[in-house]
Amino acid sequence: MKNIEDLIQKAVELQSNGLVTGQIADELNVSRETVTWLLTRSKKEVAAPAPKDISVNWSSIGKSATRLHYISLALCDMVLETLEKTNTEVDVVVGVAASGIPLASMMANELGADFALYHSRKGQDVVQPGHKGTISRNFGSVAGKNCVIVDDVITTGSTTMEVIEQLREMGAKPRAVVVLVDKKGADMIANVPIQSLVRIVRLD
């Protein structure tokens, strides 16, 4: 129960610092539904049963540039293995802000590829219908290029799907998705293979 109380406290703290639900979900590596439940629970309101979710804390990796480097090498190895099957080269590594950025930049360096940055629409308090995330103009271009998408955790797959759709609309070719932890347990999203260091499987 202490872990739940810690998560509630962290969610409330992040909200008081101005983060919106999607950003809190990213920071705690849980779903938006779980964030809503945590914030409701913090107010001592009668809450619905806890959603089926798993919080992922990878701060022991994130606080060390050395560990991030080693993890990025492992992710590069998985990307190369995936792309070898189709004899495809990596042109651009796309880091999903914010947690995918450190790994993606290290991977781009290792793979000799460009680096691009994707800002998800999750960072907005209210997502307007048809509103999309964006590829930052300050980094690499993706049009016509083979792209590998890098994030820390896949929870529902909605952000990954958003990135894939946006890349395709820009004329890019998403070839693989690599993450530290896959909580969704899918082999593919929108016909793009997913590779993860850890896959969480719920036994119901």
Automatic annotation (TrEMBL):
Contains an N-terminal DNA-binding winged helix-turn-helix domain and a C-terminal regulatory domain (or effector binding domain) resembling phosphoribosyltransferase (PRT) domain. HAMAP family: GfcR. The lineage of its organism: Archaea, Methanobacteriati, Methanobacteriota, Stenosarchaea group, Methanomicrobia. One of its GO terms (molecular function) is orotate phosphoribosyltransferase activity. Belongs to the purine/pyrimidine phosphoribosyltransferase family. GfcR subfamily. The keyword Nucleotidyltransferase does not apply. It comes from the Archaea. Gene3D superfamilies: 3.40.50.2020. It comes from Methanosarcina spelaei. This is Transcriptional regulator GfcR. Residues 82-184 form the Phosphoribosyltransferase domain. Keywords: DNA-binding, Glycosyltransferase, Transcription, Transcription regulation, Transferase. One of its GO terms (biological process) is regulation of gene expression.
